[in-house]
Amino acid sequence: MTLTGNLFSGLPETPLAEEQFSTLHDAGHVRIERIVSTGQTAPDTGWFDQTQDEWVCVLEGEAHLEIEGAETRNLKSGDW
User: Fold this and answer.
1) Exposure of 6 in the CB half-sphere (CA atoms within 13 A)
2) Can you give the pTM of this predicted structure?
3) Count of CB atoms within 10 A of residue 58's CB?
4) How would you write the pLDDT of the chain (80 residues) with one tens digit per residue?
C-alpha cells in the first residue's frame, strides 16, 4: 500500500509547547518523520544523544543545529 499526504496539512495555528513528531514511514532500518517546531531548543541539561543517524531538511523557516565534533549548521528553507 502506498500512503500519500501533504507535509503542510494539519500544522498548528499557534506556537507549540513542545516539538510535534509524526512518523510518515517506518521500514525498520529507515524512519521518516515530520517534525514541527515553533522555536524549541535543546534542554538546558545538554545535548540530545541518539544512536541512529539523522538527515534533516528544512521545508520552511530555519534551524540551527549544533552537532558534537562539527561546526554549527544554520539551515534555511530548502537546506538539508
Assistant:
1) 4
2) 0.78
3) 16
4) 677 899 999 999 999 999 999 999 999 889 999 999 988 887 777 777 788 888 999 999 999 888 888 888 999 999 99
Please provide residue 45's backbone torsions phi and psi, each rounded to the nearest 5 degrees.
Answer: -75, -10
In a 3-state reduction of DSSP, which class is residue 13? coil
The number of helix segments (H) and strand segments (E) in the chain equals 0, 4
Q: Which helix (H) or strand (E) holds 59?
A: none
Cα distance between residue 44 and residue 36, in whole Å: 20
DSSP-assigned letters across all residues of 20-51: EEEEEEE-SS-EEEEEE-SS----TT-----S
